[in-house]
């Protein structure tokens, strides 16, 4: 097998923690070929005693006042800044900013999207275009950049929900500005649906990939309950197609999707219930089913903690905790949940939970981080889960207790690149960092005794200690048939007698991609 390392940008996966596992039982972390053993097993109950998430509008507004990037324009005092995305929409020398704002004086005000462009005449940034979306809910709102029409230009895709919990979608396409050269966009689709809205992405030809020709446009599909049917599982599917001559998306087809008859009275009650009843149904632990349906204590688990308004994902290596911010019932058997990472609030995700039967659910985990303009699906937590009965929980505890466990420390080696372009090379206990044209060298070490700490010692050109930086770190690895993806996250702070205290500065995510090509030659690594 031939291996080669390449770099990646804007690849976002939610921050993963190694504190393991739920209150129902404990799961050990086991060592892998890329880790060193640490002598102490980790046994921590992750259900933190925190105040429940408050749905009050003012507190939600307060929680989103801090964003990763700084706005390049002045925001009105009656507006709250929700997100800022730095990007280049027109391939000129200056980046543009996409800003998401909401009027902070009214809970039912609509979310607005602004585009700030650099004005060479005044030598500063100004708003070149803005629009009001159909969404009110700041916790479920997300924006991505995607070429849905196939003309090699990126459209602005704004997804969210309104005050009634209905899904919303606005798509804006770049068009010439009237009487000027500023960036301008026109709305090509505006949908509000009491159901689900999906952009169906089709494979595009090599000619499109190389820029020789335009590609096929993506369809937009709205799925909702068929109100003309007595069966609550009967659905209606509306498909919108891009009309190039009219420069707009139009409804072209409506199809009926008959569902199965519901024999279970509990399911009938659930499907006709409100979202609170649906949440209570999900409460507790669910285990990700293996392809062979074998039960094992090291399977991934999702724990819906309705009491503390948290959702906890955990497996043998990692744990992620999310604050359960809002949820809406999009279909009779589907709940859409908006969450934010418990430690890094800029990492927000949406979960689509569809009930298959009384003991099984299908969960889709979608990353809406502002670093991730593609809003990709996280395959690690996506899949079919089954309810853990008390008996299964006892069996898993028994298996856990009979299995030795130990904490792990990753081996850092080779080239990594951050989302912001910083490059770092690890070689045994040494590192070389290239950031903003400056080269920094020194040594580092990692400690994991229940608290993951990374210490970087920066040396001057005479090899004299210049500065020591302390971070809380997290490391995880994902792999498939063609590549291995390693991610290192560093959260700056300091060690005190109370433990690690974050500095409040932005965390840094470094990523390494190892590409795997199968052939008959020996394994080599090109870094």
Could you walk me through the main structural features you see in this protein, from its secondary elements to its overall organization?
It is a single chain. The strands form six sheets. The chain has an eight-stranded antiparallel beta barrel with strand order 24-25-26-27-28-29-30-32. Strands 15-16-17-18-19-20-21-22 form an eight-stranded antiparallel barrel. It has three domains: 2-11 and 408-526, Lipocalin (Beta Barrel), CATH 2.40.128; 35-49 and 262-401, Lipocalin (Beta Barrel), CATH 2.40.128; 57-257, no CATH class. A hairpin with a 4-residue loop joins strand 24 and strand 25. The chain is mainly beta and 527 residues long. It is built from five helices and 33 strands. The protein has helices at residues 57-63, 206-209, 265-271, 275-282, 390-401, and strands at residues 2-6, 35-37, 79-87, 96-103, 111-119, 124-132, 142-146, 155-161, 167-174, 185-193, 195-200, 219-225, 235-243, 248-257, 284-288, 301-305, 310-314, 319-331, 334-341, 348-357, 360-367, 383-387, 408-410, 414-418, 423-427, 430-435, 438-448, 452-459, 465-479, 483-496, 499-502, 508-517, 525-526.
Oligomer: single chain
Please give the share of residues in helix. under 10%
Query: How many DSSP H or I helices?
Result: 5
Secondary-structure class = mainly beta
Number of separate strands: 33
How many separate structural domains? 3
User: Which blocks of ≥5 consecutive residues have pLDDT under 50?
Assistant: 1-67, 291-297, 400-406, 521-527
Indicate the proportion of strand residues. over 45%
Principal-axis shape: globular
What is the average per-residue confidence, as pLDDT, rounded to a whole number? 77
Distance between termini? 15 Å
Major sheet summary line: 8 strands, antiparallel, barrel
């Amino acid at each position: 097998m031939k291996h080669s390392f390449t770099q990646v940008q804007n690849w976002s996966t939610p921050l993963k923690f190694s504190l393991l596992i739920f209150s129902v039982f404990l799961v050990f972390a086991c060592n892998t070929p890329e880790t060193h053993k640490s002598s102490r097993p980790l046994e921590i109950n992750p259900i933190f005693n925190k105040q429940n998430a408050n749905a009050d509008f003012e507190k939600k507004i307060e929680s989103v006042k801090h964003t990763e990037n700084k706005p390049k324009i002045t925001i009105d005092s009656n507006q709250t800044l929700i997100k800022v995305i730095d990007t280049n929409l027109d391939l000129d020398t200056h980046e543009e900013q996409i800003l998401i704002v909401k009027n902070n004086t009214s809970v039912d005000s609509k979310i607005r999207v602004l585009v700030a462009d650099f004005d060479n005449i005044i030598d500063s940034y100004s708003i070149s275009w803005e629009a009001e979306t159909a969404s009110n809910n700041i916790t479920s709102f997300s924006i991505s950049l995607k070429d849905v029409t196939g003309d090699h230009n990126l459209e602005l895709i704004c997804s969210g929900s309104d005050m009634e919990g209905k899904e919303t979608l606005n798509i804006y396409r770049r068009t010439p500005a009237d009487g000027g050269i500023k960036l301008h966009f026109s709305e090509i689709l505006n949908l509000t649906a009491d159901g689900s809205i999906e952009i169906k992405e089709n494979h595009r030809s090599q000619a499109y990939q190389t820029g020789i020709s335009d590609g096929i446009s993506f369809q937009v599909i709205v799925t909702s309950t068929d109100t003309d049917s007595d069966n609550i599982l009967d659905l209606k599917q509306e498909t919108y197609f891009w009309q190039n001559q009219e420069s707009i998306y139009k409804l072209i087809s409506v199809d009926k999707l008959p569902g199965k008859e519901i024999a279970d009275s509990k399911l009938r009650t659930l499907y006709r219930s409100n979202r609170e009843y649906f949440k209570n149904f999900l409460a507790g632990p669910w285990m990700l089913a293996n392809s062979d349906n074998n039960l094992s204590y090291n399977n991934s688990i999702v724990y819906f903690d309705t009491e503390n308004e948290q959702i906890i994902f955990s497996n043998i290596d990692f744990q992620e905790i999310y604050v359960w911010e809002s949820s809406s019932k999009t279909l009779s058997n589907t709940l859409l949940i908006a969450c934010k990472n418990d430690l890094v609030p800029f990492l927000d995700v949406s979960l689509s939970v569809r009930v298959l039967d009384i003991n099984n659910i299908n969960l889709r985990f979608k990353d809406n981080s502002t670093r991730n303009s593609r809003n990709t699906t996280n395959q690690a937590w996506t899949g079919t889960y089954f309810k853990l009965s008390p008996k299964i929980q006892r069996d898993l505890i028994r298996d856990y207790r009979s299995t030795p466990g130990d904490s792990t420390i990753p081996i850092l080696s080779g080239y990594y690149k951050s989302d912001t372009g910083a490059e770092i090379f690890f070689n045994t206990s040494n590192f070389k960092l290239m950031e903003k044209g400056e080269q920094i060298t020194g040594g580092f070490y990692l400690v994991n005794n229940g608290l993951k700490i990374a210490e970087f010692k920066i040396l001057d050109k005479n090899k004299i200690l210049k500065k020591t930086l302390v971070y809380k770190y997290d490391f995880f690895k994902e792999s498939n048939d063609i590549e291995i993806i390693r991610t290192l996250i560093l959260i700056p702070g300091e060690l005190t007698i109370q433990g690690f205290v974050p500095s409040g500065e932005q965390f840094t995510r470094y990523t390494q991609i190892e590409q795997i090509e199968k052939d008959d030659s020996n394994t080599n690594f090109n870094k």
